[in-house]
Amino acid sequence: MQLETAFEIVEAAREAADELGVPMAIAVVDAGKHPVVMLRMDGALPVAVDTVLAKARTAVQFGCPTGEVLEAARTNPTVYDSFLTATPDPMVYSRGGIPLRVDGALIGAVAASGADGDLDEQVAGAGARLLATA
Q1: Alpha helices (H) in 43-116, listed in sequence order
Q2: Are 99 and 64 in contact (CB under 8 A)?
Q3: pLDDT tens digits, 104-132
């Protein structure tokens, strides 16, 4: 994950959040789940900062959008509950985290947090689309 690319992804997501009028935290992590760029918009709740990193790391951990992880956890809660304690990084089963791929290879994830899951996913999706069109 290149730093400049991560900045562009976060900026595209921030613009989407601005258009919706919802202050959010937005983050990009690399394939190793390490933060590359993270921001907290003015007015975003402090808890959104912790949640956004957990969403991004969850998207990398499972290699799919966190909305899909949420649905899988609902159908098999015992297994998915065990994942929460089996990994050292906090994970969260909530919409708003999207893995990033280049030529099929996982390079990281973008996540947004600060609204309901639908809006979080919409904002993260704006960032992910930037990479898809680059």
Answers
A1: 47-62, 66-75, 77-86
A2: yes
A3: 999 999 999 999 889 999 999 999 998 87
